[in-house]
Structure formats: C-alpha cells, structure tokens
Amino acid sequence: MTEQGVAPQKSFSARAFAELVLLGVIWGVSFLSIRIALDTVPFVTTVFHRVFWATLVLWAVIAVQKLPIPKDPRIWGAFLVMGFLNNVLPFSLMAWGQLYVETGLTSILNAATAIFGVLLAAAFFRDERLSRPKLIGVTLGFLGVSITIGLGNLLQFSLGNLAQLAILGGTLSYALASVWARFRLGHLPPQIAAAGMLTGATVMMLPLMLIVDGMPSLSQPWQTWVSIAYYSVVATAGAYLLYYRVLAQAGSGNLMLVTLIIPPIAIVLGALVRDESLPSNAYLGFAVLAAGLIILSRSGRRD
Description:
This protein is mainly α. It has one domain (about 15-300). Helix content is about 80%, strand content about 0%. The chain has helices at about 15-40, 45-65, 75-100, 105-110, 110-125, 130-150, 160-185, 190-210, 220-250, 250-255, 260-275, 280-300. Helix 2 (about 45-65) crosses helix 3. The longest helix has 29 residues, at about 220-250.
C-alpha cells in the first residue's frame, strides 16, 4: 500500500491512533486471508478477485458521494500505470511469493516498502532530502531485511529464496507507485485515485487471468469466498479509504508506523491457523527493521 503525495507530519489524536491500529490489524489479517484463498485459487486469479471486487465497491462509494469522474485521457493513462505499479505487479509477486513463504515472514518483508519509499522520494523530490536520521533508518531497515532473509540464503537458489526476493520486488513496486502518484495523481480525491487505479489494474488482470488460469471457478469452499471477500472488500477497498483518512489526520511519518503493527498480527494468525513457525533470524531481522522504521517516522516529523 502506498501513499499519494506527502502530507505534513502531525501529532496523534486518540482517534487517529485507534484508526492507525485498526488499519494495521486489517492489513495484518489480509496476509492470512490471501494465503487461505491460495489453497484453492491460482495466484493470478486471486489478484483478479482482489482488484475486481474492490473496484466495484469504490465506484459504489463514489456514486453515493457524487464525486466527479475524470474525463481527461491522460489521467486514465496515469491510472493504468498506477494500477500496474501499485496493484498488478506487487499483488502478483506477493501472491506467488506466499505460495512458498510463511504468512508472517511475508508481512515482515512487506515492511521494506517504507524503506524503498524513503530512498525513492529522496531521489525524485527535492523536499525529501536524505537526512542523517533517514540514512540511519534506511540502513537499519536494509540490515533488518538482510537478517530476515539470511545472507547465506541469498547465495543459494531455491523457490523459497526466490519467493522472498519476489516479495521484496513487490515492495519496490509499491514505492515506485508512490512516486508516480505524487507526480500524476496527487491533485485527485483519494477515492477517485484509488478507484481509477484499481480499474486500470482490473483491465490488465482480466486478460492475464484468462490466459494463465482460464475462467475463474465459482465452485470454491466457503472459506475461500470469505477470504476473497475480506482481502478485496475490507483489506483493499475499505483499507484504501481508511488509509487516506489516517494520512490526513496523522501525516505520512506517523502512518509509516502501521508497518510495525502488521507483522505481529500476521505472525500470530499464521501460527494459530496454519501452524506456521519462523526461524529466530526472522524475529531478529524484524526487530532491526522496526528500529529503522521508528527512526524514519520520527525523522519525518522533524524534517
């Protein structure tokens, strides 16, 4: 998940903090719901479900709120690029990665989005300089990711290692999407930007799904449909709306802390529901990564 533009840093209100925690819980549960769907649904089809149903929900919200729909073809072209960078590519890479990587570990690696986001913002925007605290935070972040994966594993080829790299590729795509959004979509209402982006993603995912997986089967266990409903309607459409609400109240630096809430939720659910266990280096890596993210969030408030 990425932000569009950079909001000024703000102090927390009790309500903003509660909504931040709620957002972290929603996204933490989403990793388990996606993994459950992957038990019976091909990964490309899981991504199609995610963007398609979320698109319908967001356009319904826009219709109720009677928001104006953009007519400029250039904006719709920007939606296509955003849909690819923020949905098609990262959702696909992460869904495939979850076939071979534990739920909790996927959520830990997902936190690297904030690290890549800071680096790319510094590269593309003059007002996002890489200050000393940010540099320390980024360094700790990459160190944490390296510990989580295990440096020795990077020298060995396996589907598990390749899946972890795919998940990291998804986080880089999220960060690129944030840059693109600030350049091209920052002037739009967040509901319109999110719906347009997901529409573009759906347009791309439909032929890809039909080519790779064929028509989706409607004969699925109830657990699969509950999981699809959760990760598409609640954890995508609903979470986007909540994300921008928290962003407006708390600022982008504070919002970065949501990445610290997600992994504990995903780790506990993975252990309880799927009997997953993580190696000790994953917990150590998350601790180092968390320290980097805390430094980055505080440096954002000062800069």
